[in-house]
Specification:
This protein is of the alpha+beta class and about 450 residues long. The protein has 13 helices and 25 strands. It folds into 3 domains: about 150 residues, DNA methylase specificity domains (Adenine-n6-DNA-methyltransferase TaqI, Chain A, domain 2), CATH 3.90.220.20; about 130 residues, Helix Hairpins (Orthogonal Bundle), CATH 1.10.287; about 140 residues, Adenine-n6-DNA-methyltransferase TaqI, Chain A, domain 2 (Alpha-Beta Complex). Helix 6 packs antiparallel against helix 12 and helix 9 packs across helix 12.
Length: about 450
């Protein structure tokens, strides 16, 4: 094993870091404050929304960001004023110190309303001589998470005291490099956020297009004629799935096994079913209902009313309905039609009358729908919506790519394995942080 320390680096208690970096305790670069025990609060301190201050909890930290769109708790103004040391300020970092979500971290970009914390959180107030964004990125890194796991090993209920947190070690570059690293990672964050907004915008555009195109309110150029009212059972042969019992007897790992389609094999936003987790035997398949390539299936129990186009051959249990086309129909069009707001509301009404929310096959067969008078119009509508889906999917993949890039960049930049100092000019100023970071990360096989 090669234990040689690279030139310009040194060995420390937390590993090999650049020579001009320091090892500091978190408590040396910040003040950590939490809610004092006797100032905790009970149900009587909880007030109606906006009648008091926001009290942050772990649920308000989502993917390393503060989320105030939902799940807000409010405490009385008296309870808020009782603990001035934990009033949230811009630039603070909140950290979950106990429970199953211990280690969740977020920086406060802006205080929009008087805010405090609940007893599960602490506030890390970073001193001015240290960059708070750098600290936030480091606390969100895998390197730090691994350190936490070692400290918490064996605890039934994960808990980290403020003393333990303040004594955790971290690598700290000179302040200018902290700022440069935070700038690069913030730029990637901003790109991811802009992609998120663009994805949501495209989804809204698609939603509007569905409401117009799938109801006949807007007709595509070249098409005319009144849409036809039909029952779903007139367009499709509809059959409930079936399960061989006991199912465990028929599960197999053999190569000739038949795909066993479960709700968990697809996500709510999926359009296609492309694979299954398990397979059943040929004998089991004889006691079930076979789904062929390009068949439409519809969930009819629990998460009812979700349509999918199968891109594999398999079998379905009684939590699914199989919809087989009776004539020449465009399957993609019907996927979108069954996904539309109007049809989904109809499914809600059909399921509401039962003790357990599910769709009865006879009710589904009787469901009235309106469809274009020609196959060509179905195909044209489906193509427009499919193109929109493809654009959204491409943006999601691009976002996922940059999320992976960010993870890789964090592990390299926050530990000093990749230096931004190497691109500083003689005056200590940075000419092109982003461009040079691309080169450095490329050398590490991570594309930016």
């Amino acid at each position: 094993m090669n234990n040689k320390i690279p030139t310009g680096y040194k060995k420390t208690e937390i590993g090999i870091i650049p020579e001009d970096w320091e090892v500091k305790r978190l408590g040396e670069v910040s003040k950590i404050v939490g809610r004092i025990g006797f100032r905790g609060y009970t149900k009587k301190d909880i007030v109606k929304p906006w009648r008091g201050a926001i009290s942050l909890s772990p649920i308000n930290i989502v993917d390393g960001k503060l989320n105030l769109k939902s799940n807000l708790t409010f405490v009385s103004w008296n309870k808020y004023e009782e603990s001035p040391e934990i009033k949230i300020k811009t630039g603070d970092i909140i950290f979950v110190k106990t429970g199953s979500t211990l280690g969740k971290v977020a920086i406060i970009e802006k205080v929009v309303f008087p805010t405090t914390i609940n007893p599960q959180l602490v506030i890390i107030k970073v001193f001015k001589r240290t960059n708070n964004k750098f600290i936030n990125f480091y606390l969100n890194s895998f390197t730090f998470k691994n350190l936490l796991n070692k400290v918490l090993d064996g605890q039934a209920i994960p808990t980290l005291s403020q003393y333990q947190l303040s004594n955790l070690l971290l690598p700290l570059p000179p302040l200018p490099e902290q700022k440069d690293i935070a700038k690069v990672l913030s730029d990637i964050d901003n790109l991811i956020e802009s992609l998120d907004k663009l994805i949501e915008k495209k989804k809204l555009i698609k939603k509007g297009a569905m409401q117009e195109l799938l109801t006949g309110k807007k007709r595509l150029q070249g098409f005319k004629g009144k849409w036809v009212k039909m029952k779903l059972g007139e367009v499709f042969d509809i059959k409930r799935g079936a399960s061989p019992r006991p199912i465990e007897k028929y599960i197999t790992k053999k190569s000739n096994g038949i795909n066993w389609i479960k709700i968990s094999d697809v996500k709510p936003e999926d359009k296609y079913l492309v694979k299954t987790e398990i397979k059943i035997t040929q004998e089991g398949a004889k006691q079930s209902v076979v789904v062929n390539y390009n068949d439409l299936i519809l969930s009819n129990s629990m998460s009812y009313g979700r349509p999918y186009i199968s891109k594999i051959k398999g079998c379905i249990h009684d939590g699914w309905l199989l919809l087989k086309r009776k004539g020449k129909q465009n399957i993609e069009f019907f996927y979108y039609l069954l996904s539309s707001y109007k049809v989904q509301k109809s499914f809600d009404l059909l399921a509401a009358g039962s003790g357990v929310n599910n769709l009865k096959i006879d009710s589904v067969k009787e469901l009235s729908i309106y469809i274009p008078p020609t196959l060509e119009e179905q195909q044209a509508i489906a193509k427009i919506l499919s193109d929109m889906d493809a654009e959204i999917e491409a943006l999601k993949k691009k976002k996922e790519k940059y999320e992976q890039i960010k993870k890789g960049a964090m592990e390299l930049l926050l530990t000093g394995k990749v230096r931004l100092k190497t691109i500083n000019n003689g005056e200590g100023k940075n000419n092109d942080i982003e461009g040079e970071t691309r080169k450095l990360l490329w050398n590490k096989k991570i594309r930016l």
